[in-house]
Amino acid sequence: MLEKCESAVRPASLTERTIATARAVLAGQRRGWRAYLVFAGPAVIASIAYVDPGNFATNIQAGAKYGYGLLWVVLLANLIAMLFQALSAKLGIVTGRNLAEMCREQFPRPVVWAMWLVSEIAAMATDLAEFLGGAVGLSLLFQIPLLAGMVVTGIITYGLLLFDKSGFRPIELIIGGMVAVIALCYLVEMFIAPVDWLSAAVHTVTPQLADARALLLAVGIIGATVMPHAVYLHSGLTQGRLPVRNDAERRKVLRFSNQEVIIALVVAGLVNMAMVMMASAAFHAGHPEVAEIETAYHTLTPLLGAGAAGVFLLSLIASGVSSSTVGTMAGQMIMQGFVGFRIPIWVRRLITMAPAFVVVGLGVNATTALVISQVVLSIALPLPMISLLLFTRRPDIMGEFVNSRLTQAAALIGAAAVLLLNIFLIVQTCGVPIPGLSAD
After folding, report:
1. What b/e sequence results for 400-416 when a residue is b if at least 16 CB atoms lie within 10 Å of its CB, and e otherwise?
2. d(C-alpha 180, C-alpha 163), whole Å
3. Res 223: pLDDT
4. Which of 106, 127, 240, 271 has its CA 20 to 30 A from that of 369?
5. Is the pLDDT higher at 360 or at 280?
6. In Å, how far from its chain's centre is CA 4?
């Protein structure tokens, strides 16, 4: 009785108020754009994976070496990401299960264990990029050793993860704020950097690969944009976020989800394009050799001023801290989905931090590690993509929400494009000449 009284006077939490408002919207009792904002959150969290430090590394190299020439890859990657994030969200909303759980239920046990192992490697590669990016930004901004920056990044991300105990809404708002900071920073950069807008527009819709190195960067951009952990995570963020009572409500939530995916990933895509354009405008003509985040920062100061360099670092820190937080959340969900158990969040944080400390301890260049990690992610990406295609096309799983023929065809084309790029990369890595592409 006492507990009931306490719950009656206890103010509703932010998450509880969000759920209550969502229920009112679904029942037709609330209208207006502010009411519909309660459905936003999952795609915003997933979108941070598309503007993480791995994107900084690959986009800086792409813009510095090839100018605007690889902007079409950024556009292609973002369109593929948009489609697969929408499918992932749909799986969670319709089935109430995330992608990893569906894999455990539908696939043979050996396949499940193999997928879990590959997914864990991809999660570590993800966190390597994100964690190192935040640490590099803090190291450059505050003039502290990289190891110290890594420790600070670890503490900050662990602190952010603790907000998840208060429900889904606080962490959604925090990550949303970080995305806004990154987007604002690159909006500012576009006013500072002397961008050739006509050339950028032409190269956005004109596919070309200048040489074998451009292919490696193209695969890196795909890996940095369409990320395995984001495909897994999005279904987990939507699976139980808002309880739906029937297919009519499920259809409404799905419509809101698709709209959020489009908006969130359009913003992420524009930020990615802005990264390439900034690097092209600042470095391509006189400093095409710029290939490292640290070099980019130090070169930006004399070229565009301390303000541009400072804004660059601020966006990098926001990206590293927020994406590392989201990456840890994804790792937890992947483990629970595939093998059915969780580990304490601080243990997960330590495990995913370990590779970054090993890389720095061995003296490996941080930006080189970032780019390599993105290629690893691109190679791991087909597993969740193909699984998602298999599940969302099955009427026995999706019911009336099964993929249409057009959606299925577009998803197959997107998956085929990723697989083709990966095959090219493997062939190139094995030393086999690729017709039409010259070596560096």
Report:
1. ebbbeeebeeebeebbe
2. 19
3. 63
4. 271
5. 280
6. 42
For residue 166, is pLDDT > 80?
Answer: yes
pTM value? 0.88
Q: How far apart are CA 411 and CA 397, in angstroms?
A: 18
Dihedral angle over CA of 364, 366, 371, 377, nearest 10? 90
> Two tokens at 81?
């990401």
Q: Is 147 exposed, middle or buried (0-12, 13-18, 19+ CB in 10 A)?
A: middle
> If 0-12 CB within 10 Å is exposed, 13-18 middle and 19+ buried, where does residue 309 land?
buried
**Cβ-proximal residues to 188 (8 Å cutoff; 6+ apart), any chain:** 311
In the numeric block, the tokens 């997960």 are attached to: 348
Q: How many residues does the chain have?
A: 440
Torsion of CA 262, 61, 56, 261, to 10 degrees: 10
Dihedrals phi, psi of 437, to nearest 5 degrees: -120, 125
Count CB neighbours of 92 within 10 A.
Answer: 24
Closest to 332 measured CA to CA, from 152, 161, 85: 161
Show the domains of the chain with their CATH numbers.
42-376 (1.20.1740.10)
Picking from 41, 11, 78, 71, the residue whose alpha carbon sits closest to that of residue 224 is 78
Per residue in 343-382, pLDDT (tens digit) is 788 788 787 778 878 877 777 776 667 667 766 776 777 8
Burial of 322 (0-12, 13-18, 19+ CB in 10 A): buried
pLDDT tens-digit map of 375-401: 677 677 788 999 999 999 999 999 999
Helix then strand then coil, in percent of the chain rounded to 5, is 80, 0, 20
Query: Does residue 7 surpass a pLDDT of 60?
Result: no
Location of structure tokens 């050339």: 199
Contact 431, 437 (CB under 8 A): no
Give the position of tokens 């990933």: 265
